[in-house]
Design goal:
- InterPro entries: Importin-beta_N (IPR001494).
- One of its GO terms (molecular function) is nuclear export signal receptor activity.
- Keywords: Nucleus, Transport.
- This protein is mostly helical.
- It has a domain at about 595-745.
- It is about 65% helix and about 0% strand.
- The radius of gyration is 36 Å and the shape is globular.
- It starts with a helix and ends with a helix.
Length: about 1100
């Protein structure tokens, strides 16, 4: 170690004061002190250049980071070195080349660095450790050198060492951390990594005895001034935790009892009744206690083979902690987290085999003295309700409390953990008792890994939890609660919410009785506490999936009352309204509908616009109502839309971008209402004339309101905002569909709106933020309405008047084309729909001779985008091949010479590559999904044109192999086109018989599945399944994701629909049948002739 220190000093001396190092220091200082962004960027760019030009650049940065008196400069040097190293890291987390000397230098600097610099150096060290030690295993000196540094540090060495013990332990923590996860996911039973075994044997095992000695010392000291001692204990606890989080090193398993008991001593030394801010030393020890509980949870869930004997002691320690849950309102976040983790440890113990037997004597204590006190309303709750209502809702009315399980590790607050434990306790089974209530016992969930104990078993929810909660009286008209009993009943309601899984298992009569007697009376109590109403709302939402249908009227009436609750003089009722909205939303999600929709709609729309903070919630609820009510609320939508738009225009500044969350929520809701109303259009027949008239009147009302909104958003400012383009496109599409004549077109100012919308699309680059494909739906309607009424700006825009620049602005179709080409190239999720728009844009509009250049330019940009995307995917066929190749096909049919040139420009030999890929892709097209008539038709027409080009234009210069591929694929595609047309005709004639029977069979099958017991896989089966999935994921090439919802979407071929592709094939075969006989296998020709007897005379020679 001393020799290495001397080497380090000599190397540092080499760089001290030399010109290059001085320049680096100056540039680093410039990045710190300059307030000019340009100067900072220039300094960073200069450092980037030096990093490639200067020899020993990393060493110079290490020298700066470890020397000098300026702490900011040292941090800056370490930070740049970290980022420089990260840039050198490959995809697999390895660095191409790291010298032994640099690794040694980095380790030494880290062992002696100041705390601020150490934090950054450890991030750098992590990168190097993962590459050189974990993945490559090429740093054999690391473990012995680190052990030596620890042994010679101040708290461990018997001599007076100047080396801090904390630094080498922090380095050890950095080295151990990567092993907290499995490193070889393809192995079902991954062995302990050899590096971790080495660390354990050489360092961690000796540290276990050191931990015992240091805890002895810490517990004899009065006061909290020994910060290094506490930090050392905490660091050792963290190292031990990460070393066993996934694996169990062989050398460590015999020592589990030793260090677990030491950790229990740490936890026993903590206090849970601090009334003042605890000193720093106590906080550090609390962190060690928190890490100890995390380790206990890991041992229980991951390493039962080694830890079962320790479970009684772990449980005893955890029980001592959770009894302090009544004090959580007075405790800091860290101490509350410790109580939360203690609850989680007990929950995990409940899930293992001996857990019930071990804990059952303590159930009453747990419920009465630990779980329930954590649920009772306390002073902190009331304070948070007033000061930060959203935080109160997040912590106390958790929407994410979906699964009750002992294995959860994402709860974080004592109340959530207590609720989770209560749910686990309620579902656990008690001792055998004689009972005829088989339904109740059968409904109880079997503990994971246990065999069924028979139908005479009842859950602890029946035996203990519900009887305990029933001791608390429910408020009613005749029984008002005082503050303390009201706080207690808040806890009762929290408990009911956590019993969701247990209550779901009960029969409907029980659930109905429970809700009527224990929850609904709260709403009829005069001046009932808002805290109780909010929690009751939450309970109804949590139980939405198991509420009987006959309770619809009572439940919705209660929640509507809560949703309309005004603020009280001294108490805000926002959490009440928020939880009521959440409860209603949960009921709607579970197809639990109100008897009447209008009262709900009136309350929601009446409140929107009063408080901006609540508008987002109300819009979200309104959207849920619209989607759930669908046809039932369609008649109310015109009035609601008009009302909402009138309201939104008052607080929707057109120049603001992005808009507030409330406005975005309103736009999303309006789009949903437009879609719902459109889908409610009655069938066109004589009997429905009146209904149709009413619907059309509503359509006109909605379109006028939406047009006013879009005009306010887009036309009232020179720079229209680009926010929410997907929802605004949905509204624009509705307006387009509503235009039944030219007068309406003008009245709604549709031309101006379409121009602005298209310009926004052309410059839009926010697709990664949305997966909504409504933009493409709107594009198709816009193209259609242009054919109907023909507005000039769609295909061509005039020069602007002076003094504007004499540059012709892009037409609507050109702007749309720019967006579509970018979507094809850059947004995989939109590629399929964008390619579909290519056909629409090329063949539905009528490009007259004077603007034919527009069509040509579109074909060029579409070809470049589609072919470039295809080239990125060509190594492995995938679902996106089809839309990309067919998009090029559409371009080729009309502009073959131009497209051929573009393909050759993108890549040499591009045309033949596209042709061969097109020929090969036919089988892929048919295998990937059911054939779509329009796509097969386009394919046939394209291959015919390609063959004509190969044989006529190129005069046979194309290779026979390429021509053979084209002929074979053409014959197969022609046969498939005939089959698809016949299938389509049959479907139209016969309908879809047997659907009802199939559905009935599926229902019966589902009923049988639901009656059978749920199979729970073993740990070994789980690991084998995930190892297999990991292997499949790694072995298969990752292909960009694409939206497959529109796989069977018919493309609009416009004018191409007038062409009969079979006539084209016949003409081609008559002209080149001799070439076909020469190139195509006879069996292919025979199959083709069987489908088309008309070709018999042409191919009789080979039949």
């Amino acid at each position: 170690m001393k020799k290495q220190q001397e080497k380090k000093k000599k190397r540092n001396a080499m760089f001290v004061g030399d010109d290059d190092s001085v320049q680096i220091v100056r540039l680093l200082d410039q990045t710190l002190t300059s307030i000019d962004g340009v100067a900072v960027r220039q300094a960073t760019e200069a450092l980037d250049r030096l990093s490639t030009e200067l020899p020993h650049f990393p060493y110079r940065l290490l020298s700066i980071a470890s020397g000098g008196e300026n702490p900011s400069l040292k941090v800056a040097a370490a930070t740049y070195l970290k980022n420089f190293t990260r840039r050198s890291t490959g995809i697999e987390g390895t660095i191409s080349e790291v010298s032994k000397e640099f690794k040694d230098q980095l380790l030494l600097v880290s062992l002696q660095a100041d705390p601020a610099v150490l934090k950054v150096l450890l991030e750098l060290l992590h990168i190097v450790v993962v590459s050189e030690f974990v993945k490559k295993n090429t740093w054999p000196e690391l473990v012995p050198e680190l052990r030596s540094a620890i042994e010679k540090s101040s708290l461990i060495s018997s001599s007076n060492s100047s080396w801090s013990t904390v630094n080498p332990l922090m380095v050890l923590l950095t080295v151990v951390k990567p092993f907290q996860y499995f490193l070889q996911p393809k192995l079902a039973k991954e062995p302990v990594p050899q590096q971790l075994e080495s660390i354990t044997k050489e360092i961690l095992v000796p540290l276990v005895s050191v931990l015992h000695r240091l805890i002895d010392k810490a517990l004899t000291i009065h006061g909290w001034d020994e910060l290094e001692l506490e930090k050392t204990i905490h660091s050792i606890c963290k190292c031990l935790y990460f070393s066993v989080k996934s694996h169990m090193p062989s050398a460590l398993s015999p020592l589990l009892g030793s260090f677990c008991r030491d950790m229990i001593r740490i936890l026993d030394s903590l206090s849970f009744d601090w009334s003042v801010t605890p000193p720093e030393g106590y906080l550090i020890r609390s962190k060690a206690g928190k890490r100890s509980l995390l380790l206990f949870g890991t041992l229980v869930s991951r390493h039962r083979k080694y830890s079962d004997k320790l479970v009684p002691e772990i449980v005893n320690c955890s029980m001592k902690i959770v009894k302090h849950s009544s004090n959580i309102s007075k405790l800091g976040c860290l101490t509350e987290r410790i109580i939360s983790l203690a609850f989680d440890v007990i929950s995990r113990v409940m899930e293992i085999g001996p857990g019930w037997r071990l804990l059952s004597p303590h159930f009453s204590f747990l419920l009465d003295s630990a779980i329930f006190p954590a649920l009772v309303l306390n002073e902190r709750d009331i304070s948070e309700w007033e000061e930060d209502a959203d935080e109160f809702i997040r912590k106390n009315l958790p929407s994410e409390l979906e699964e009750i399980s002992g294995w959860r590790d994402d709860l974080f607050t004592a109340r959530k953990s207590a609720m989770n434990l209560l749910g686990v306790l309620a579902m656990s089974k008690g001792p055998p008792v004689s009972t005829t209530n088989k339904a109740s016992s059968a409904s109880c969930k079997r503990k994971k890994g246990e065999k069924s104990r028979g139908n005479n078993q009842r859950c602890m929810g029946d035996l203990l939890v519900l009887p305990f909660l029933s001791k608390f009286s429910v408020p009613s008209k005749s029984y008002k609660l005082d503050a303390s009993t009201s706080a207690a009943y808040f806890g009762v309601l929290m408990a009911y919410g956590s019993l969701q899984e247990f209550i779901q298992e009960q029969n409907p009569e029980y659930v109905a009785s429970f809700v009527r007697t224990r929850v609904l009376p709260i709403y009829s109590t005069p001046d009932c506490s808002p805290y109780l109403v909010a929690s009751a709302n939450w309970v109804l939402g949590e139980l939405a999936s198991c509420l009987p249908e006959e309770m619809s009227a009572d439940v919705f009436s209660s929640l509507l009352k809560a949703l309309a609750m005004p603020d009280q003089v001294e108490i805000s009722c926002y959490p009440v309204r928020f939880s009521a909205a959440g409860g209603i939303g949960s009921l709607l999600e579970n197809e639990f509908q109100p008897p009447e929709w209008l009262p709900l709609l009136q309350i929601i729309t009446g409140k929107i616009g009063n408080e901006e903070d609540e508008d987002s919630m109300l819009f979200q609820l309104l959207k849920s109502v619209v989607e759930s009510g669908s046809q039932d609320i369609a008649t109310h939508i015109p009035y609601i839309v008009s009302s909402l738009v009138s309201n939104m225009l008052k607080f929707m500044p057109p120049s603001e971008d992005p808009w507030s969350q409330a406005i975005l929520g309103g736009l999303e809701t309006l789009a949903a209402m437009a879609q719902t109303y459109e889908s409610s259009k009655p069938e066109a027949d004589e009997e429905n004339n009146q209904a149709t008239e009413i619907w059309l009147t509503g359509q006109g009302t909605i379109s006028k309101a939406l047009s006013a909104l879009l005009q306010h958003a887009w036309l009232a400012t020179d720079v229209p905002p680009t926010s929410s383009i997907d929802h605004l496109s949905t509204m624009l599409r509705f307006i387009v569909i509503a235009c039944t004549n030219c007068n309406v077109f003008v009245e709604l100012r549709l031309t101006e709106l379409l121009i602005v919308w298209a310009d926004i699309l052309a410059s839009w680059n926010g697709w990664e933020e949305s997966e909504d494909l409504s933009v493409f739906d709107c594009i198709e309607e816009v193209v259609g309405i242009n054919n109907k009424y023909g507005f000039r700006s769609f295909l061509f825009r005039d020069m602007p008047s002076p003094p504007a620049m004499p540059v012709r602005p892009r037409s609507v179709v050109e702007s749309i084309g720019s967006f579509v080409s970018k979507a094809i190239l850059e947004y995989p999720s939109a590629t399929r729909r964008a390619c579909s728009c290519v056909h629409t844009l090329l063949y539905v509009p009528n490009y007259s001779s004077d603007i034919e250049g527009v069509g040509k330019s579109l074909a060029m940009v579409f070809t470049v985008s589609a072919f470039s995307h295809f080239l990125a995917l060509r190594e492995k066929p995938c679902a996106l091949w089809r839309p990309l190749l067919l998009a090029i096909s559409s371009c080729y049919i009309s502009y073959s010479d131009i497209v051929e040139g573009v393909l050759e420009k993108v890549i040499s030999g591009g045309f033949e590559l596209w042709v061969s890929s097109l020929a090969f892709s036919y089988s892929l097209m048919c295998d990937a999904s059911p054939s779509v008539v329009s796509e097969v038709k386009l394919y046939v027409m394209t291959v015919v044109k390609v063959i004509e080009h190969l044989l006529d234009v190129r005069h046979g210069n194309a290779t026979d192999d390429l021509a053979r591929k084209c002929f074979v694929s053409l014959m197969e595609a022609s046969r498939r086109l005939k089959e698809v047309n016949e299938e389509t005709d049959d479907d139209e004639d016969d309908g879809e018989p047997g659907e009802e029977e199939t559905e009935s069979e599926e229902t019966d099958s589902n009923d049988e599945d639901s009656e059978s017991e749920e199979y729970e896989e073993t740990e070994e089966e789980f690991l084998e399944r995930y190892a297999k999935a990991a292997a499949e994921l790694e072995d298969s090439e990752v292909i960009e994701e694409a939206d497959e919802e529109d796989d069977d979407h018919e493309i609009d071929l416009g004018s191409l629909n007038e062409i009969d592709p079979q006539k084209l094939v016949l003409t081609l075969m008559e002209k080149h049948h001799e070439k076909v006989i020469k190139l195509v296998p006879s069996e292919v020709i025979s199959t083709f002739v069987n489908s088309f007897p008309v070709y018999t005379s042409l191919f009789f020679k080979c039949l």
